């Protein structure tokens, strides 16, 4: 097992609240890694530090053999970490297809001159962007909605579109922030199949989830956060039996 | 192939209509109205530039006229007896676009973290700073000639022919305003094409993505700092070109022409026409330049016919009607007269 991402002693506080205390974890290439914890445990904060949205107070992240540029979100994406958001953040007034096309931004080159002159290179690149975006819509199963404005999509499709947009950036690691939130049982099952497919196609997955059943059924390894500190990290069966985890979830 | 032929035919028809327009307007209504068309084209160029910043990238800029001022003063300084420099127009306009673009970056850089009302306030201040500079840079060294402005600016001349003088073509006299019209219409078309092509590129999509959700745009790998600065620079350079044309056309510039009201006017064109939609913005620019003139010239005769006397002074009535029109549009068509329709474009099967 080769580690794809190593987070070392990540700390973050908001004013007097210590949101993360020396959180270290290792995600191996090709696995589905779950991050769980009670409300307010610091899962999303960890996510936001990891993807460069929040400046960190301490610690560092190594990704794919190099330090991850935590200061800037777009550089993190370019390095190969893509994410979705807990409260879906799509480009509401763009079509589904355009949303995914935006995801290709960092994997395409053409600048103002190319766009204005509509050079051969620009037309070819634009064609590739469009083709790849259509493929991804197909991949997540919403190809028939490509002309629908993102804000008019049903909730489940919005989640899928966000995943397609993240995949468009060609990530090595796909980080999903509560993708099953608000989904019914059928939708959750379909999502599980999609995530397993993404891993089978070679993308490592980091999953934050409230739905413990989904996490335990899907993940290879799981870390548990409580009050901003990691209290367990192992395969689901071991984590489930850990008394600290049980205490965190059920209360003392 | 027939699609291509249709597009070609459409372009040819629009071109023909635009070519004939000043001749028809000039002979039917007089050259005053051709001059109105000239100004309409300048405002359309301005509105298209502001549309990149406000319409595409969603950055509310209330000081946009400053870039128009930069372009206009650059032309005035480089082609007038003020410094005794007389550069040709083809050298000044690209330089004007470049310098205005740099000013765009200068405004954009400190405001990268600002949005909405806060950005509006800072840009408003920026616009005023430029105007006040122009007003006061007549000492200790006289650069801008202060509030008196710069007069006797060289008219734009192309191929040795000053556009301010009429020429004879096939026994037909083309007055100066018509010559300017042709120059402006060609440049406006160039700006329209640039705008459309940028909109349909990865850069245009990145601008709209920032407008829709900046955090998500970053997460998509967009360097929002550079892309925003690019929007400011592109928008400003269009303003700089329009400003240069304005100075050569009018022959005189002074700080008065670049007040806050002008910025607001251009913003109105963008908002009223339909933010983010190039065709809508052109419509907005045209209506807001032509309608006030129609009110100005039409108000008195209409009142004469209705009441037998002029009840309301045309000058004040004009602004009253103008304000009323703005309010009505904002109530009944809040997205503008011709709003952006991305999905319609996508449905056309491209």
Structural description of this entry:
The complex is a heterodimer of chains A (252) and B (350). Chain A has helices at 43-50, 73-79, 96-103, 112-117, 120-140, 155-167, 185-200, 212-218, 236-241, 243-250, and strands at 3-14, 17-28, 32-36, 58-63, 66-67, 81-83, 173-177, 204-208, 221-226, 229-234. Chain A is an alpha/beta fold. In chain A, helix 3 crosses helix 5, helix 3 (96-103) runs parallel beside helix 6 (155-167) and helix 5 packs across helix 6 (155-167). The longest helix of chain A has 21 residues, at 120-140. The model of chain A has no long low-confidence stretch (mean pLDDT 92). With 350 residues, chain B is mainly α. In chain B, the strands form 3 sheets. In chain B, strands 1-2 form a two-stranded antiparallel ribbon. In chain B, helix 3 packs across helix 9 (224-250), helix 7 (202-212) packs across helix 9 (224-250) and helix 10 (260-273) crosses helix 11. The radius of gyration of chain B is 21 Å and the shape is globular. The chains are: A alpha/beta (252), B mainly alpha (350). Chain A binds chain B through residues 51-53, 72-74, 77-78, 82-83, 85, 89-95, 97-98, 101-108, 110-112, 114-116, 118, 122, 125-126, 129, 146-149, 165-166, 168-169, and chain B through 194, 197-198, 200-206, 208-209, 212-213, 215-224, 230, 234, 340, 342-343, 346-347.
CATH topology of chain B: ABC transporter involved in vitamin B12 uptake, BtuC
Would you identify the regions of chain B where 5 or more consecutive residues have pLDDT less than 50?
343-350
Distance from N terminus to C terminus of chain B (CA atoms, Å) equals 15 Å
Q: Tell me the Rg of chain A in angstroms.
A: 19 Å
pLDDT < 50 stretches of chain A: none
Name the CATH class of chain B: Mainly Alpha
CATH homology superfamily of the largest domain in chain A: P-loop containing nucleotide triphosphate hydrolases
How much helical structure, as a percent, in the residues of chain B? over 70%
How many domains comprise the coordinates of chain B?
1
Report, as a whole number of angstroms, the end-to-end distance of chain A.
Answer: 36 Å
The major β-sheet of chain A equals: 6 strands, mixed
Output the helix-strand order of chain B. Answer: HHHEEHHEEEEHHHHHHHH
Lateral strand order in the biggest sheet of chain B: 1-2
Question: Would you identify the CATH architecture of chain B?
Answer: Orthogonal Bundle
Beta content of chain B: under 5%
User: Helical proportion of chain A?
Assistant: 25-40%
* CATH topology descriptor of the largest domain in chain A: Rossmann fold
